[in-house]
Amino acid sequence: MYKRFIGSLMVLILYSKSALAQSNPDQIFDHSIHTVLVHPIGNPIGIPVVGLNDGSPLFISFDDFKASYQNYYYAIELVNENWEPVPLSPFDYSRGFSQNKITSFSTSSIALQSYYHYEFNLPNENCRPTKSGNYIVKVFRDGNQNDLIFTSRFYVTEGTANVFATVQEPFDGTISQTHQKVQVNVDVKKINYFQPGQLSIQVIQNTRYQDAIKVKEPSFIRGNNVEYNSERDLIFPAGKESRWLDLQSLRLQTDRIFKFETTDKGTRVILKPDLSRASTAYYTFKDLNGSFVISNTESLQSENQNDYATVQFTYIPKEGIPFMGETLYLSGALTGNVLNKESAMLFNAQKGIYEKTLLLKQGYYSYQYVIRDQNNPQPLQDFMVTEGDHWETENNYSILVYYTQAGAQYPSLVGFSTINSKQQW
Fold first, then answer.
1. Taking the model in full, what pTM does it have?
2. Per-residue 3-state assignment (H helix, E strand, C coil) for the chain
3. β-strand partners of 359
4. Rounded Cα–Cα distance for residues 180 and 203 (Å)
5. Among 160, 253, 266, 361, which residue's beta carbon has the most beta carbons within 10 A?
6. Fold for domain 159-238+393-424?
7. Distance between CA 399 and CA 49 in Å, rounded?
């Protein structure tokens, strides 16, 4: 009965919002590039949002295993809601140079894995967006924008609209203890010549960009207040607090580590097998909501002194039987916040287990397991089998408010806010 209800609810949601079938702006094109980070300075688990007139920039960094100096440059590009380029010149939406060289770098030390670490801040005096909206930062070689090494999303908000949100129990008792509903109110009095049909919102749970929900039709409009409070739109699976992995030391065998192996290619970390948590009791603890933090308990500079390790993840399905017609994914920032072949776990029929190997830089990681049928995706059921869902779970929600002026070629990002579900208690 529960699955049938969730399936029916998903059909309603698919009809009530625009599907976010879009290109992925976060991609690495060079296999030598690792640990791409784009986040607000001082907030390594925050989504990459910067104010149009705010002096606080984003921090962007990455490691290059080629371990020799490369002439890397960066540029920014304004894109539409589907992360596709808008037909404008860079000088129409940015101030400074159309491309800039990355001049801040350091070489790895102590670490067995050799790499060059590059970093820069954005915006800066040489590159500053002048319009709000969705952006992509592109990093490329030798000033040639066709020779990309990676791209990554970021958002620029103008703060025209004030955003207020709460996390609530869904009204329907069938999912009230397993899911969370986000109610959003937008104050639009500062938007000139406001037209309700031009406004839309997008809500992201933690950093699960692929499953962000976009809604165009508000529930109510009361004067300058636009309210999104439908029982079918902004519904998210609550899940459980994330699983964790402490890689801050490659000598200290922390709770989730079964053993270390030293190979000619470096350290191999075998984790203890993961099992379903669907039937285990819920308890709260502080987690990173699917994000990770690069850190090291044995050195002073995590950026260029942290080593890399090959990490073996294992998930044991019930009775060693694979999920028929569905794919098991290792979900979180450690796999790029996407559900694709790179994050899919592979079933080992001989052992009756799912396996996945990742190369990770020392730090503290959080992750979850998601089961999904790509031909018939049911995002509201993502955690039902592997993690379980509990209304009490602490989750972050990011609310992006877009407004498309009449005749505009892309939507402006007029408002942004974040809320934590624990703040409702």
1. 0.92
2. CHHHHHHHHHHHHHHHCECCCCCCCCEECCCCEEEEEEEECCCCCCCCEEECCCCCCEEEEEEECCCCCCCEEEEEEEECCCCCECCCCHHHHEEECCCEECCEEEECCCCCCCCEEEEEEECECCEEECCCEEEEEEEEECCEEEEEEEEEEEEEECCCCEEEEEEECCCCCCCCCCEEEEEEEEECCCCCCCCHHHEEEEEEECCCHHHCEEECCCCEEECCEEEECCCCCCEEECCCCCEEEECCCCCCCCCCEEEEEEECCEEEEEECCECCCCCCCCCCCCCCCCCEEECCCCCCCHHHHCCEEEEEEEECCHHHCCCCCCEEEEECHHHCCCCCCCCECEEECCCCEEEEEEEEECEEEEEEEEEECCCCCCHHHCCCCCCCCCCCCCCEEEEEEEECCCCCCCCEEEEEEEEEHHHHC
3. 310
4. 12
5. 361
6. Immunoglobulin-like (2.60.40)
7. 11
**Residue ranges covered by each domain of the chain:** 27-157, 159-238+393-424, 243-381
Q: What is the pLDDT of residues 307-353, one digit of tens each?
A: 999 999 999 999 999 999 999 999 999 999 999 999 999 999 999 99
Q: Which two tokens stand for residue 420?
A: 């934590």
In this prediction, the residues of the chain whose per-residue pLDDT falls under 50 are: 1-2, 4-5, 8-21, 424-425
Q: What does the block give as tokens for 36? A: 């791409």
d(CA 15, CA 19): 9
Do 135 and 155 contact (CB within 8 A), yes or no?
yes
Q: Domain 27-157, what architecture?
A: Sandwich (2.60)
Tokens at 85, concatenated: 């380029």
| Tokens at 395, concatenated | 């989750």
